[in-house]
Write a structure and sequence with these properties.
Layout lengths: L2 E2 L10 E10 L2 E11 L4 E5 L6 H7 L10 E9 L2 E2 L7 H7 E4 L11 H11 L2 E2 L2 H14 L3 H4 L12 H13 L5 E5 L7 H14 L4 E5 L3 H7 L2 E6 L7 E7 H6 L4 H7 L5
Parallel strand pairs: 1-8, 4-10, 4-11, 7-9, 9-10
Antiparallel strand pairs: 2-3, 2-5, 5-6, 11-12
This protein binds adenosine-5'-triphosphate (ATP).
Protein name: Phosphate transport system ATP-binding protein
GO molecular function, one term: phosphate transmembrane transporter activity
Keywords: ATP-binding, Nucleotide-binding, Translocase, Transport
């Protein structure tokens, strides 16, 4: 079945995780984590390696269930709708809640133009050439890549630099008009200049899409996010959120000593 392309952006949605617990087999990795990620804001998930940030992120768009033996409890609400409610389609959740991964993953042999539109093909969305051209320009512009590739849209995505490939992946994610964009360490494979470029892009995106970003880089969290959540898994216990709040409060006067130590690089 095909649907026509939505012409207008629906706009950013809030995402609310309620009492999320997660397991890989009998290994419990998250324990009753609750967090509201506000519409139109950038929320950074921070914390030491292995405390469950990526698992939490993948639960937010139903990717956790792709892992054999993975289980979860709790609710995830996109505005008011539970993405795990019976009858809710996985494809709908993933369309509204897009994801950008650590390593840029464009289709290397596919043209830049077709890479941007790849998500539409997967969802069976049809559009005229004129609408597609406009969408490619709009999303590449939002991803901060248009000026660099406008004259070579037919060249393969794999020929771009790493930073450009990551911005191409952001454009591809935006082309299906998600309401939330999840980013799992999107700059960790990039050089400082490309990292800055992606950070500028993230700041500009928030008007259109709610952003949730996992980052190990505290300066990056401080630069791009309005809110932070600090995850921790102490001595083999499942990950929990120790503290969350505005980024300013989390960095300048956190309530918990462990948050203060972490954001100032004293552990993790
Ligand atoms: N596919 C998997 N199968 C089994 N265990 C997993 C799997 N993915 C993650 N885990 C385990 O779940 C726990 C949380 O991992 P997760 O990747 O979510 O943490 P993280 O905070 O994102 O870490 P990092 O910052 O290093 O990416 C870890 O103990 C990890 O070993």
């Amino acid at each position: 079945m095909t649907t026509t392309l939505p012409r207008t952006t629906i706009g950013p949605a809030s995402l609310t995780a309620r009492e999320i617990s997660a397991w890989f087999g009998d290994h419990k990795v998250l324990d009753r984590v609750s967090l509201t990620m506000r519409a139109g804001e950038v929320t950074a998930l921070i914390g030491p390696s292995g405390c469950g940030k990526s698992t939490f992120l993948r639960i937010l768009n139903r990717m956790h269930e792709l892992v054999a033996g993975a289980a979860l409890a709790g609710e995830v609400l996109l505005d008011d709708g539970d993405i795990y409610a019976p009858g809710q389609r996985v494809t709908d959740a993933r369309r509204h809640i897009g994801m950008v991964f650590q390593k840029p993953n464009p289709f290397p042999a596919m043209s830049i133009y077709d890479n941007v539109l790849a998500g539409l093909r997967l969802t069976g969305t049809r559009a005229s050439r004129r609408v597609k051209d406009a969408l490619v320009e709009e999303t590449l512009t939002k991803a901060g890549l248009w000026r660099e590739v406008a004259d070579r849209l037919r060249q393969p995505g794999g020929a771009l630099s790493g930073g450009q490939q990551q911005r191409l992946c952001i454009a591809r994610a935006l082309a299906v008009r998600p309401r939330v964009l999840l980013m799992d360490e999107p700059c960790s494979a990039l050089d400082p200049t490309s990292t800055r470029r992606i950070e500028e892009t993230i700041a500009e995106l928030a008007a259109d899409v709610t952003v949730v970003i996992v980052t190990h880089n505290m300066q990056q969290a401080a630069r791009v996010s309005q809110r932070c959540a600090f995850f921790l898994a102490e001595q083999g216990t499942p990950g929990v959120i120790v503290e969350h709040g505005t980024t300013t409060a989390m960095f300048d006067h956190p309530r918990d000593q462990r948050t203060l130590d972490y954001v100032h690089g004293r552990f993790g």
